[in-house]
Design goal:
The complex is a heterotrimer of chains A (392), B (246) and C (291). With 392 residues, chain A is mainly beta. Helix content of chain A is 3%, strand content 55%. A 16-stranded antiparallel β-barrel of chain A has the order 1-4-5-6-7-8-9-10-11-12-13-14-15-16-17-18. In chain A, a hairpin with a 5-residue loop joins β5 and β6. Chain B has two domains: 29 residues; 212 residues, Cupredoxins -  blue copper proteins (Immunoglobulin-like), CATH 2.60.40.420. In chain B, 37% of the residues are buried. Chain B is 13% helix and 38% strand. Classes of the chains: A mainly beta (392), B mainly beta (246), C mainly alpha (291).
């Protein structure tokens, strides 16, 4: 997570605003780039996996040394008030995609309230998943940011996925007040306009205030409202770009709080999500819905706690819950898809250095999904990892 | 009664004498103070002093057009006498003598874009005046050792402005410069007790030195400090110094 | 408590002097460090404590200013101007006379505002309490704060109206005080002495370029500008003019200096109406206000 200084630096377009911002002042040939790798030893265990050989649901445990892929982060200023971010990212097999590719015009007309970013970028989530402090398979990301109810076909409501669009950000001079609005294609960040002429909007606003000795606290809210196709036209069996049809709506909204109390800090995010009944039942719009079909609606929240013993040792714990309040498909059990996720870990940085970040990262996470096992019972899975989170 | 009066007189005189002795410490009165004098020589050829180009300050260049000036880091006379050496008593003074502050307020003048004198010797706490006699502004920028008893400051002194009054709080050889005229260099040598600065022949005389045994230090900005032990009876004592040219 | 404070400050002074005699001023013994972490700062209603700032200093400041506050952080070799050496207790941005210590508020403002055209960022995203604690921590690096109080801030009279007469008088001041010797007649930082300027660590340094820059190292307002030349930027060639400039004259100079800067201002409009030309450095007498 970014501290307030880092958040202001980013909101200013990676500028310190004192006319001495790198890379311009360092050297014409200076190109800011950092690479991040996470080699680790990890262990995954899932309680029920359908195994062909035995025809039974079995617990499967896997462990060993592994790598987590490579992020190449290049971001900074090309010119005063023109900034960019480029993040080619590979998964663990070395297959590359662009996690972020965007250019930004900062401080238009000299105002910190006018910043425009276009390209592929992370939504302005006040609690950013990309800067999260957790890395395991089951606990690395926020479930709320990727939740799809059981049987739901809408994969486009994931606020944790980077999207392709245009964003306006405005902030006060000391970055205490932030407000943003973005519009993006309902493609979940996949380029080449696969199947969709639909758009989604994302709005976020927050206010930070000094609470005396306690520090600076931030409260905000976010909302994502969009349309996406429930079906697509095909040509020769292949989906036609822009051939999405049957647009239906979905939304996600919630509150966010960042609370600092001495060495402890808390990040709280809530979400109320809703997917149209056609999404919830994975049916194209216009077809007949089963009787009793409704919109899928859920509520969730997570609280992530950090104890910063000192700048080099941080303890982390996150608890997350998602509860369906209304199942879209009447055949589902009322709690089908409910999630509980608990994560605990610590990061130790043996040295602090301006040129590299190096953490020894240890984490354990546990997740349970109601009715998620092949036999319809609860699916539980846990992960443990110990490794180096290294960026240089 | 006469006898008693005489005794009373003698006792009073004795008391007065005793008090005088007590209050003057273990020294006799200043009327019997002596001098330390001597000559400071440079052994060897003085390093070449670079001529100063004052063309950036026409009003000062005009003053020196007939007799150009050079740097004054090592100034040796025709007989090898070393000028601008500060001589002072570094050991042997009692607390009262060491903290005595003369009432004279010498001048440190900026004239012809040079500091006159090049080295001004002072006591801790002694007031002096910084004067600008030139047709141009100067800024006076003493550079004492950071973390020491004296603090850096920087003041502008335009032409025709009145002198500043300054005093220093601790012993130190403080370099002074002018930022506008980068060739200007001088020293304020802040010491304790009586002092002197050698003249063009290398001669110096420290006056007002009570009889006693002392360590005398001679300091030159390039060659550093040398010490010598000296005993002053009532009268003169001599301490000569020789610095080796490098 | 006061007698305790007296005793402690005497002890500290003695220890500090002993420490200075025996080692470089950049290093503190563990004993010194523990003693000095009791340093406090007072800004308005805030009280800052050095001990509370240790981790923020390590997180944000050590990279440039160094663990010992001596300006020798790992980044220092790459940046110009060099980061401040707090052990010297010499600061540019003050409201107090040259040679004296800045007030806690001066340091608080510098931390929050940053320093233009340098690598010192504005730290106003940190909470006020965090900044107040850092002020105390900055002070704890130098023994000078153990024995000496901050200087008395200079009195700045209220700004008079901007008039043509004042701007012309300001120009006369600019000529008489010979600001142009370093700053140049148009304030382009190209005066005859500009190339040879060095700071007190003998590193090359440039005078402020009024012609191209609208923000000063120590602020942006008229009052900030007033303070700069009436207190001097200690540690640099920029002297204090307080001994020779009266407060009204100082405001006149502030208004004239504004006419040299690039951003639009009332002063620039008036200068344009007057047809004000740059001063002639070869003039033997300063132009009078009547000209």
């Amino acid at each position: 997570m970014l501290n307030y200084f880092g958040q202001k630096f980013k909101d200013n377009g990676y500028q310190l605003m004192n006319d001495r911002d790198s890379p311009i002042w360092q050297n014409n040939g200076y190109w800011p780039v950092t690479m991040r790798i996470t080699p680790s030893w990890h262990r995954e265990s899932t309680n029920k996996v359908a195994v062909d050989q035995t025809g039974l649901n079995q617990q499967i445990t896997a462990h060993g040394f592994d790598v987590g892929g490579l992020d190449i982060l290049a971001g900074g200023t090309l010119e005063k008030n023109v900034s960019f971010l480029l993040v080619p990212s590979s998964d663990e097999t070395g297959a590359f995609h662009f996690e972020s590719v965007n250019a930004r015009l900062d401080n238009l007309f000299g105002s910190s309230w006018l910043n425009l970013k276009m390209g592929k970028f992370e939504l302005d989530n006040i609690v950013s998943e990309k800067r999260g402090l957790t890395l395991t398979a089951n606990g690395g990301g926020f479930q709320l940011y990727h939740f799809i109810p059981v049987g739901d076909s809408n994969f486009l409501g994931q606020i944790g996925d980077n999207q392709l669009g245009l964003e306006w950000l405005g902030h006060s001079a000391n970055d205490r007040t932030r407000i943003s609005a973005a519009i993006f294609s309902s493609t979940d960040g996949n380029p080449d306009l696969p199947g969709s002429n639909a758009y989604t909007g994302f709005f976020a606003a927050s206010q930070a205030f000094d609470a005396g000795k306690l520090g600076t606290q931030r409260l905000g809210f976010y909302a994502m409202v969009g349309q996406a196709p429930t079906d697509t036209l095909t040509s020769g069996g292949e989906p036609i770009a822009g051939g999405g049809i049957g647009n239906k709506g979905f939304s996600r909204e919630g509150f966010v709080g960042l609370f600092y109390l001495g060495k402890l800090d808390f990040q709280v995010v809530t979400q109320h999500g809703s997917d149209n009944a056609y999404f919830a039942n994975a049916l194209p719009a216009g077809s007949t819905l089963p009787t009793g079909a409704r919109d899928a609606v859920w509520n969730g929240a997570f609280v992530e706690t950090h104890y910063v013993y000192n700048p080099q040792l941080i303890f982390i714990q996150r608890s997350e819950w998602i509860r369906m309040s209304q199942q879209g498909n009447p055949a589902n059990a009322s709690n089908a898809g409910d999630l509980d996720n608990y994560v605990v870990g610590f990061r130790y940085m043996p040295f602090m250095n301006a040129r590299a970040g190096f953490a020894w990262h240890n984490e354990y996470s546990w997740i349970r999904q109601r009715g998620g096992a092949p036999d319809g019972s609860d699916l539980t899975s846990n992960s443990f990892m110990s490794g180096f989170d290294f960026d240089f | 009664m006469r006898g008693k009066q005489a005794v009373l007189l003698v006792v009073t005189l004795l008391l007065l004498l005793g008090t005088a002795i007590l209050y003057s410490g273990d020294r006799v009165s200043a009327a019997a103070a002596g001098q330390i004098s001597g000559t400071i020589k440079l052994d060897g050829a003085a390093p070449h002093q670079k001529p100063i180009d004052m063309s950036k300050e026409p009003s000062c260049a005009a003053i020196h057009k007939d007799k150009p000036v050079s740097t004054e880091i090592v100034v040796a006379g025709p007989n090898g006498g070393l000028e601008w050496v500060v001589v002072y008593i570094s050991e042997g003074l009692n607390a009262a003598e060491a903290s005595a502050v003369p009432s004279e307020t010498p001048s440190f003048d900026q004239k012809g874009c040079q500091y006159i004198p090049h080295v001004l010797a002072l006591d801790v706490g002694q007031h002096f005046k910084v004067v600008n006699s030139d047709q141009t502004s100067h800024n006076i920028h003493p550079l004492p050792r950071p973390g020491g008893p004296n603090h850096e400051w920087n003041k502008s002194q335009p032409q025709g402005s009145p002198p500043f009054d300054v005093a220093w709080t601790g012993e130190e050889m403080i370099p002074v410069k002018c930022n506008i005229h980068p060739w200007m260099h001088g020293y304020m040598a802040v010491v304790k007790g009586p002092y002197a600065v050698s003249d063009g022949n290398g001669s110096y005389t420290i006056s007002g030195v009570p009889p006693g045994s002392y360590t005398v230090t001679a300091w030159q900005e390039q060659y550093g400090a040398q010490t010598q032990k000296v005993t002053v009876a009532s009268g003169k004592a001599t301490a000569d110094f020789t610095f080796k040219a490098k | 408590m006061r007698t305790n404070a007296c005793k402690w400050s005497l002890l500290l002074a003695a220890v500090a002097v002993a420490a200075l005699c025996s080692r470089s001023s950049a290093q503190m013994t563990k004993y010194d460090e523990d003693q000095r972490l009791g340093m406090e700062s007072h800004i308005g209603k805030l009280t800052g404590r050095a001990a509370a700032a240790k981790e923020n200093y390590r997180r944000f400041c050590t990279g440039c200013h160094g663990d010992e506050g001596d300006g020798e952080g790992e980044n220092a070799q790459w940046i110009d101007p060099k980061p401040r050496n707090f052990t010297l207790a010499t600061f540019k941005c003050r409201s107090t006379p040259t040679g004296t210590l800045p007030t806690d508020e001066d340091l608080f403002n510098t931390i929050g505002r940053g320093i233009m055209n340098s690598n010192m960022p504005p730290w106003n995203p940190l909470s006020q309490q965090a900044r107040a604690d850092l002020v105390a921590y900055v002070k704890h690096f130098s023994p000078r704060w153990q024995t000496e109080k901050a200087g008395a801030p200079i009195q700045i009279p209220p700004a008079p109206e901007v008039t043509a007469d004042r701007i012309k008088a300001g120009q006369a001041m600019f000529q008489k005080l010979e600001c142009w010797k370093c700053h140049g007649v148009e304030g382009r930082s190209n005066g005859p002495s500009a190339d040879t300027l060095t700071d007190d660590q003998n590193r090359a340094i440039k005078p402020f370029n009024f012609h191209d820059e609208n923000r000063f190292k120590c602020g942006v307002s008229d009052e900030d500008l007033y303070k700069i030349f009436m207190t001097g930027l200690d540690g640099t060639p920029m002297p204090s003019f307080a001994d020779n400039v009266k407060p009204e004259e100082a405001w006149e100079l502030v208004y004239y200096l504004r006419t040299l800067q690039p951003m639009p201002s009332k002063e620039k409009d008036i200068a344009k109406q007057l047809g004000l030309k740059p001063i002639n450095p070869n003039a033997t007498a300063a132009p009078t206000a009547a000209q």
